[in-house]
């Protein structure tokens, strides 16, 4: 298997498609370049999703996130692009992508983008005492 950056997002069949459950992932080593200065931007990405028929394969996700290292991108654009690519690959019931970018010019930026499959409603949360 390749250890080079890749835009290919591989998937595998959801082992429990009959059930709504949430997958949480944290990617603390994301980098891209500032499109204005060319300086590196660092971020942590949080992915939360309710899979439908497919789940994203983790090594492919790692190589995909690595593929942005030499690309210039505004925080808002790269967050929405990643969400769009993940949704296209997995067609989840729900997905939320949070990009928490490190400080730049004294400002921390957090971008949150979401996808909801038409007609899907989240189950009611059960609160236990």
CA-CA gap between termini: 48 Å
Shape call: globular
**Which structural class should the secondary elements be placed in?**
alpha+beta
- The whole-angstrom Rg is 16 Å
Percent range for β-strand residues: 35-45%
Q: Encode the helix/strand succession as letters.
A: EEEEHHEE
Helix content: 10-25%
Oligomeric assembly: single chain
Overview in brief:
With 129 residues, this protein is of the alpha+beta class.
Summarize the topology.
Layout: E1 11-13, E2 23-33, E3 40-50, E4 54-56, H1 58-66, H2 75-90, E5 94-104, E6 107-116
Antiparallel strand pairs: 1-4, 2-3, 3-5, 5-6
Question: How would you describe the overall organization of this protein?
Answer:
The protein is α+β, with helices and mostly antiparallel strands and 129 residues long. The protein contains 2 helices and 6 strands; from the N terminus they run ββββααββ. The chain has helices at residues 58-66, 75-90; strands at 11-13, 23-33, 40-50, 54-56, 94-104, 107-116. The strands form 2 sheets. It has a 4-stranded antiparallel sheet, covered by helices on one side. A two-stranded antiparallel sheet has the order 1-4. The mean pLDDT is 95.
